[in-house]
Design brief:
mainly beta; 1 helix
């Protein structure tokens, strides 16, 4: 279900035309490798 909303890439970077991966960090948030944006997916 979540694949419609979150595809594993940073939405902030997409606005600039970039494709930046987001990794799961130590606090179970997805964090952008470039911008530091964090997303919690439950």
């Amino acid at each position: 279900m979540w694949d419609h909303f979150f595809d594993g890439y940073c939405p902030e970077s997409k606005l600039d035309g970039e494709k930046v991966r987001m990794r799961l960090n130590a606090h179970d948030f997805f964090e952008s490798e470039k911008t530091g944006l964090q997303i919690a997916v439950s």
